[in-house]
Specification:
heterodimer, A: 63 residues, alpha+beta, 2 helices, 4 strands, B: alpha/beta, FAD/NAD(P)-binding domain, 3 domains, 8-stranded mixed sheet, 16 strands, 33% helix
């Protein structure tokens, strides 16, 4: 199982990933991004669109 | 916190503040909510606007808003050729001051403003938006309103929560990074746009000069193209090649939906404005003036609808109609133009620039450049005529 993780030090909280998520799996608060694993289909739109490479795919075992 | 307003606006960018201002001016009680601590910060924008576009929704231009005045555009072809073009007066804004003042204009009309107010849901009664759930200073509140206006930018959760489809296709999302840098040596009378499939595929690079060598230097590329290489890496290469002496003062990232306007920008008790409604110009990505224009229309219609005691989507559709009369219609055309222009190879772009350079500089117009670019697509020339003549 893979999951997508936010690299906090890189993330600019710009919200671009939220707008391209087809399943509304991403939530952006004032301070962080959270991705709902249940909703996420691993389409990777968010990973690709991120302007600053702040999202990465990780193996669930590594979390 | 007061629990009931005529209008609650979510997001105090230019579109939200303008909507709040015009709604308040028409007599509505208005609450404007901003999630960040400060209005106008961070600036996720290249800050360019035309004078005409700005004057569509403000009566007077305050000099403090203007970092630099421009009189033209320089298009940089892939091979480095530069095509200069005179345009109507443009401004590079100082959005920190500008956004703050727009919120103040709303406050002057009577709107209440709260910063650090994070909206986390829309309250609905059947299909109608009747308020928002907001967290302010660690307390949760339900604030009710006749009309909720979502001006919450590219991520637009308000529209989604209210049941509208606000998603943007990956290919239509321009993913952008920008630095504000010093020692950027460009002609400050012009904005500078650089086209190249190698350096900014399905997008462009820009340098918008402020003053004393300061400029916003950045790029946007289609989300689809960012799979191969990230915008930050493209920007790194751009700075190294074109502005090796630039020292970076700030970096910002963000996305611009370069799309046609969303099919639905109103619902029962709900309106969307600005990036939240995909109202940036799809070919330039410019969204300040169009967002403010939409904010003005939405604020005015909201005011009238509240007086009529009818906030149904049918009543609020007047805003949608007014928007599509000119801007929305133009954006449809610009979207088609964008999709064609992005198919041009570097060789074709170089060819267009060479042809343009043979023309008299004083006689060059944007329409003329489009005619050259669209030579194989006469149907698009007809469309371009509607926008640029």
């Amino acid at each position: 199982m893979n999951a997508i993780l936010q690299k906090r030090s890189l993330c600019d909280l710009c919200g671009t990933c939220v707008a391209v998520c087809p399943t509304d799996a991403i939530k952006l608060s004032e301070i962080e991004l959270t991705i709902d694993d249940e909703r996420c289909t691993m389409c990777l739109n968010c990973v690709h669109v991120c302007p600053v490479k702040a999202l990465e795919v990780v193996h669930a075992e590594a979390i | 916190m007061r629990k009931q307003y005529n209008v609650v606006v979510v997001g105090a960018g230019p579109a939200g503040s303008t909507a709040a201002r015009y709604a308040a001016a028409s007599g509505a009680s208005v609450l404007l909510l901003e999630k960040d601590r400060d209005i106008g910060i961070p600036v996720r924008c290249a800050e360019g606007i035309s004078r005409k576009g700005l004057l569509a929704s403000v009566n007077e231009i305050d000099r403090r808003w203007i970092a630099n005045e421009t009189k033209g555009v320089t298009f940089h072809a892939p091979n480095g050729n530069q095509v200069e073009l005179d345009t109507e007066t443009g401004y590079i804004l100082d959005r920190k001051i500008f956004d703050f003042d727009l919120a103040q204009l709303a406050a002057s009309e009577g709107a209440s403003i709260l910063t650090k107010a994070y909206v986390h849901d829309v309250i609905k009664k059947d299909s109608q938006a009747v308020g928002v759930k907001v967290n302010h200073l660690d307390e949760n509140y339900d604030v009710y309103a006749d009309i909720v206006i979502g001006a919450d930018g590219v991520e637009s959760r308000v529209g989604t929560w209210a049941g509208l489809n606000t998603r943007c296709k990956l290919s239509d999302m321009e993913t952008c990074v920008q630095v504000t840098a010093n020692n950027v040596d460009v002609n400050t009378d012009h904005i500078h746009l650089y086209f190249s499939n190698n350096r900014a595929p399905r997008g462009y690079l820009w340098a918008f000069p402020k003053k004393d060598g300061l400029a916003n230097v950045g790029l946007g590329i289609s989300g689809e193209m960012a799979k191969e290489k990230s915008p930050v890496d493209y920007l790194h290469d751009f700075l190294a090649a074109d502005f090796p002496n630039a020292s970076q003062l700030t970096t910002v990232a963000g996305g611009v939906p370069c799309d046609k306007t969303l099919d639905q920008i109103v619902g029962d008790g709900l309106m969307l404005v600005g990036d939240a409604a995909h109202q940036a110009n799809p070919i330039t990505g410019g969204g300040i003036s169009s967002g403010m224009y939409a904010g003005m229309l939405a604020g005015q219609v909201a005011g009238k609808a509240i007086k009529d005691k009818n906030v149904s989507s049918k009543r609020l559709a007047e805003y949608n109609q007014l928007w599509h009369k000119k801007e929305g219609r133009n954006h449809k055309i610009c979207y088609n133009l964008k999709n064609y222009v992005y198919t041009l190879s570097d060789q074709e772009l170089d060819g267009i620039a060479e042809k343009a350079l043979k023309s008299d500089k004083e006689k060059r117009t944007l329409l003329m450049l489009f005619r050259m670019a669209l030579v194989k697509k006469p149907s698009l020339i007809m469309q371009a005529l509607k926008v640029f003549s």
